[in-house]
Amino acid sequence: MDMTIKKQTFLEIFTPRDIIWTLALFIGSIIAWQVYQDQMDIYEVYILFGTALSAVWLGWYWRSFQTFSYVVTAISLLAIWMYARNDFDYEAQNHVFLLKYLISSQAAIMWMNFLVLVVTVTYFFALFRDSAFVYKLSTFIAWTAATLGFVGLMVRWKESHIIHPDFGHIPVSTLYEVFILFIVMTILMYLYYEQKFKTRAMGGFVMIVMSISVLFVLWYVFDRQAHEIQPLIPALQSWWMKIHVPTNFIGYGGFSIAAMVGLAMLLRLSIEKRSPNNKLLTALPSHQIMDDIMYRAIAIGFAFFTIATILGAMWAAEAWGGYWSWDPKETWALIVWLNYAAWLHIRMTKGWHGAPMAWWAIVGLFITTFAFLGVNIFLSGLHSYGEL
């Protein structure tokens, strides 16, 4: 009896779709390894197959990620094929219609920027009008923005090699690239919570941070020409970059979502006090749901930020000869870590929730923003290559 139950459970969990997903990832990883093994060291091989394993699990756990990945892969390969048809000429993006207007790295990223600004408005419109159609449209736009952002990063990776082999690098290496990564990862994390808790009412709040990030990206592009692909400085030419940075930005994404959900919670609490019959109270999720999302987002963000900090220390030991040097970036990373460690400790041991924790999450985002961006602007140190 027990064996039958276990067999049925396995078949229910691992559908043919999941089997195809697993085979596709590992076949793709093996092909990538065979094609590029001469350019990879042993650590990069571990990263390749470790990423495949992680993606397999994520696709099993959240099947929407499978669809997202297939679409990103198809569009990215289409763009690379178009470059191949033009003898891998980087200037092809100036005269091939689809590359020029849609799927070259910069075109895709600019579309992502536009869609993020649009979806911020549509989410709030849906909230105030309580429109199911606009809510669904907003979710579609958010998925499209994340897709185009990820396509932009993948195509940029190939474009960096097309420009010059020495320029080639994973697109998580410059401030411009990591901002795009942050936007995409945070949107994906939000869309997961949107599906899990079956509420779209917090979309506009989360997209506020995304819109601010987009405005920074646009300024960075038009004022500093940050989108131009340049060779990396030696300090960034390391396989550590490929795991440290994405892990870090999952943490940042979780902290951002928690802060914006906290803002939505404070708005609800304020409306309850001043206008208990306001229709927004029925549109916004309950305190319990928002409190749960805050907790989950910070817990996941903290776990990944912790891993990223450890990886950063190991990278520092290899690059600079010591695990910790009290560099301003490292010091502020520690401040961020202590802030969220205290948040989680108070939440789990004292049971705090509601407004105090929401305010704390919001303040935490400001601390995180300074650690991420403010240190680069106002301070200097071993991480001075990140200055604006």
Q: What attributes does this structure have?
A:
78% helix, 14 helices, 388 residues, disordered N terminus, mainly alpha, single chain, globular
Concise description?
Helices cover 78% and strands 0% of the residues.
Write the layout of secondary structure elements.
Elements (H helix, E strand, L loop, with lengths): L1 H12 L2 H21 L5 H20 L2 H22 L11 H7 L1 H25 L2 H32 L11 H23 L5 H22 L16 H34 L5 H4 L3 H34 L7 H22 L5 H24 L10
Helix pairs in contact: 2-3, 4-7, 5-6, 6-7, 6-9, 7-8, 8-9, 8-10, 9-10, 10-12, 10-14, 12-13, 13-14
Question: How would you describe this protein?
Answer:
The protein is globular, with a radius of gyration of 22 Å. The longest helix has about 35 residues, at about 240-275. It contains 14 helices and no strands. The chain is mainly alpha-helical and about 400 residues long. It has helices spanning about 1-15, 15-35, 40-60, 65-85, 95-105, 105-130, 130-165, 175-195, 205-225, 240-275, 280-285, 285-320, 330-350, 355-380. Helix 4 packs across helix 7, helix 8 packs antiparallel against helix 9 and helix 10 (about 240-275) crosses helix 14 (about 355-380). The model is unreliable at about 1-5 (pLDDT under 50).
Largest sheet: none
Mean pLDDT: 92
Q: Roughly how much helix do the residues carry, as a percent range?
A: over 70%
Helix count? Answer: 14
